[in-house]
Design brief:
The chain has about 600 residues and is mainly beta. Helix content is about 5%, strand content about 40%. The strands form twelve sheets. Strands 1, 3, 4, 6, 9, 10, 11, 13 and 14 form a nine-stranded antiparallel β-sheet that branches. It has a five-stranded antiparallel β-sheet with strand order 2-5-12-7-8. Strands 37-44-43-39-40 form a five-stranded mixed β-sheet, with no helix packed on it. A hairpin with a 5-residue loop joins strand 34 and strand 35. The N terminus is likely disordered.
C-alpha cells in the first residue's frame, strides 16, 4: 500500500532528481558517508568510562554510516546514522522524499513486541559494553518522512535502544527500551513527539519536535525530527551489559526514518574526576595534592616514587610524580601525574667574562620568564634574557627575576674590561729583494704582546717566535700578517707587504715560431722552440689539431715537429702546441700557443 498518491512525469521526475542533487551538493551542511563496519560504528559513539566489544550490524546495504554537520538545525555535529533506507539521502534538502527500501526485512523480537508490523528495512547495531560508573547516557536525534501526516496510524516506524543486563538494587534489564523522553517512560516515536496532524491538533510533546514539512530547510531531508534527546539509565559499575540500537519501517518499506547518534555520547554521566594540583615554594620545594569530584566513597592513594599513601605529598624536588588512585565501586584505577616544574630557578650560563676595551659579550640567563639587568650601563636591552654588554670599564651585572609565586631570584655576572694597551707592529730586514736573496729577518715591535703568530704569505708558512727568520721559495708579492695577544688574551693584528723579485726573467728566454713550412726545402722544415736558461731534460712538447686531438709528442728538445702524424703529412692550417719545462732555478713553466703550418 502506498502512503502518498504522487504522480510525476518521468522526465520531470528526473529533472527534479538532478536539481535536488545539485541543490544539496551546493548548500547542504550535512555530510553522510556510508559505512557498514559494526566495530567502527560502535567505537564512534563510545564516550568516557565505557568499553565496547562484540559489535555486530544487521542492516541493509548503504543504510548506515557516519555523519558530520555544520548547520544550525540538527543540534548535534557528528556521529553515526542508522536508517531504513539509503543513508546519504538524509543529507538532501527538506523538499526531497526519502523513500528507499534497504531490502533487509525480518522479524526482530524487540521491535515486533512493540509493533508486529515492524519488519521492513530493519537496521540493528548490537554490542556489549562495561561501564565504569553507575549511570550512562546516550544522545540522539530521531527523524522520519512519516511526519506529519501519518501520526497515530499503522505506519509508525519504530526506533529503540534496548538494554540488557543487571539492574541496580536487584533484577535485570531484559531488552528494555531506554530511548525515552526525559520523563523516563515515554518512548521516542513519531506518535509521541510531534506537532499533530492537522498541525497543532492532538500534539505530542511538541517541545521536542522540529518541523521540516511546512517550511523545509535545505540541510535535512526528513519531514520532521526530534530535538537532541539524551537518555540516561542506572547501571552497576564494572558489570557487562548488552545494547541494541534498532530502527525499522512498519507496514511497508516506504517513507524512510533515521536516527542520528552523537559521536562519543555513550558514556558515563557521572564519571568521577581525578586530577592533581601542585604548589610551589620559594626554596625550590613543592607539594602535590589529588582532587576527586563526583565520587562518594573512601579512595586509596599510591604515589610513585616514594610509595606514600595519602592524598598529598610535600617537600618535592622538581620532577614528575605518579599517583594511582583506587575508587572502591569504580572498576578501573585512575592514574594521574603531578609535575613539579621549576618554579623559576634563575641560572646564568657563565658568571665571569674578560673582554678587551671596545669589545662586546653576550650575557646569558635562563630558567625563568622575566629578567631585569642592573646596571643598564653598556647593555643594549636590560629586560631580556641575553643582552649584549659593551662596558668601557669592568662591571658586575645583576639579573633579577620574580616568579608567578612572587619568589625573587638573583644572579651576578662579572665583565672584566682589560686596561692593557696592545699595539701590533713589526719590521722586516728588507721589504724588497730578489729570489736569490730571499731570506728575511722579521723583528717584533709590538707593545704589550706576550704571544705571536706569524703568516709569511706563502702556503703553510708561519711561526710563533717573537723575531722569526723566513726564506721565500718563489718570487712574488706577499702580505705578511702578525697577530699578537697579551696576558689577558686581547688581540691586535698588522699586515705589511714583502716583494720578492724574479731574477730569472733576465737569465731565462724562450721563443716559439708562429709559422713553419715542412716542404722539404731545408728551410724552416721543423717546428722547434728556442731559448736559454732551462733544463733540457725537463722539456716536453705536445701538438694538437683544431679538434683537440693530440697528433705529436716529444721529450727531445732538438727533435721538433716535422708536420706529420703517424708518418703521414697533415693538412695546412693552425695547430696548438703545449710545452712544459723547468728553468735553471727550478721554476716550472708552461707555454700554450698556435703555430701555422704552410707547405
Amino acid at each position: 500500500m502506498s502512503k502518498k498518491n504522487i504522480k510525476h512525469n518521468r522526465n520531470s521526475n528526473l529533472l527534479f532528481f538532478v536539481f535536488v542533487l545539485c541543490y544539496n551538493f551546493i548548500f547542504s551542511q550535512l555530510n553522510v558517508t556510508v559505512n557498514s563496519n559494526a566495530s567502527t560504528l560502535a567505537q564512534n559513539i563510545l564516550g568516557n568510562g565505557v568499553t565496547i566489544s562484540n559489535a555486530t550490524l544487521n542492516c541493509g546495504g548503504n543504510a548506515s554510516g557516519f555523519f558530520s554537520y555544520t548547520g544550525n538545525y540538527l543540534g548535534i555535529n557528528n556521529g553515526i546514522i542508522l536508517t531504513t533506507g539509503y543513508a546519504p539521502y538524509a543529507a538532501y534538502s527538506g523538499t526531497y522524499l526519502c523513500s528507499n527500501s534497504n531490502q533487509n526485512n525480518f522479524l526482530d523480537p524487540q521491535l515486533t513486541a512493540i509493533n508486529s508490523n515492524a519488519k521492513y528495512d530493519v537496521c540493528i547495531l548490537n554490542f556489549d559494553f562495561i561501564p565504569m560508573c553507575d549511570t550512562v547516557k546516550i544522545k540522539y536525534v530521531f527523524g522520519s518522512e512519516e511526519y506529519p501526516k501519518y501520526l497515530h496510524q499503522m505506519y509508525n516506524d519504530l526506533f529503540g535502544i534496548f538494554l540488557t543486563g543487571p539492574k541496580p538494587g536487584g533484577g535485570s534489564y531484559n531488552a528494555n527500551n531506554i530511548a525515552t523522553l526525559p520523563n523516563g517512560f515515554t518512548p521516542v516515536s513519531i506518535d509521541s513527539v510531534n506537532e499533530g496532524w492537522p498541525i497543532n491538533t492532538n500534539l505530542g510533546h511538541s517541545e521536542y519536535y522540529v518541523d521540516n514539512y511546512v517550511t523545509p530547510n535545505n540541510q535535512i531531508a526528513y519531514n520532521g525530527y526530534t530535538k537532541p534527546i539524551t537518555s540516561k539509565v542506572g547501571l552497576i559499575p564494572c558489570l557487562p551489559y548488552h545494547m541494541k540500537i534498532a530502527i525499522a519501517d512498519c507496514k511497508n518499506g516506504l517513507y524512510d526514518s533515521g536516527v542520528f547518534i552523537q559521536g562519543n555520547s555513550l558514556g558515563c554521566s557521572n564519571l568521577p574526576v581525578v586530577n592533581s594540583q601542585t604548589v610551589f615554594s620559594c626554596d625550590t620545594k613543592g607539594s602535590a595534592k589529588i582532587n576527586i569530584s563526583n565520587y562518594i566513597g573512601t579512595p586509596t592513594f599510591t604515589w610513585l616514587p616514594g610509595n606514600e599513601h595519602s592524598d598529598s605529598i610535600n617537600n618535592l624536588a622538581t620532577g614528575s610524580y605518579t599517583c594511582i588512585v583506587n575508587l572502591p565501586g569504580i572498576c578501573n584505577n585512575f592514574t594521574t601525574i603531578a609535575t613539579i616544574s621549576d618554579f623559576g630557578l634563575l641560572q646564568v650560563a657563565e658568571n665571569s667574562f674578560t673582554i678587551c676595551n671596545g669589545e662586546s659579550v653576550k650575557l646569558n640567563a635562563n630558567g625563568v620568564t622575566n629578567y631585569t639587568w642592573q646596571p643598564t650601563f653598556g647593555l643594549n636591552n636590560s629586560l631580556i634574557s641575553s643582552p649584549i654588554a659593551t662596558p668601557t670599564i669592568s662591571t658586575v651585572y645583576t639579573v633579577t627575576s620574580i616568579s608567578l609565586n612572587n619568589c625573587v631570584s638573583q644572579k651576578t655576572v662579572k665583565v672584566h674590561v682589560s686596561l692593557n694597551t696592545l699595539n701590533a707592529n713589526f719590521k722586516a730586514s728588507t721589504n724588497i729583494t730578489s729570489i736569490d736573496s730571499s731570506t728575511i729577518k722579521f723583528t717584533d715591535l709590538s707593545n704589550g704582546a706576550t704571544n705571536w703568530l706569524w703568516d709569511f704569505g706563502e702556503q703553510n708558512s708561519g711561526s710563533n717566535l717573537k723575531n722569526p727568520v723566513y726564506t721565500y721559495n718563489l718570487p712574488g708579492t706577499y702580505n705578511v700578517h702578525l697577530i699578537v695577544t697579551d696576558n689577558e688574551n686581547c688581540i691586535d693584528t698588522i699586515s705589511k707587504q714583502i716583494i720578492i723579485n724574479d731574477i730569472i726573467k733576465d737569465l731565462f728566454t724562450f721563443y716559439c715560431p708562429n709559422t713553419f713550412t715542412p716542404n722539404g726545402d731545408g728551410l724552416n722544415d721543423l717546428f722547434i722552440p728556442y731559448g736559454v736558461g732551462w733544463d733540457n731534460k725537463s722539456f716536453k712538447m705536445e701538438i694538437y689539431n683544431r679538434w683537440g686531438k693530440k697528433i705529436f709528442r716529444t721529450q727531445d728538445y732538438v727533435m721538433g715537429w716535422d708536420g706529420t702524424h703517424q708518418n703521414d703529412k697533415v693538412n695546412d692550417g693552425v695547430y696548438i702546441y703545449k710545452i712544459n719545462l723547468i728553468d735553471n732555478y727550478k721554476k716550472p713553466h708552461e707555454f700554450i700557443g698556435e703555430v701555422n703550418l704552410i707547405k
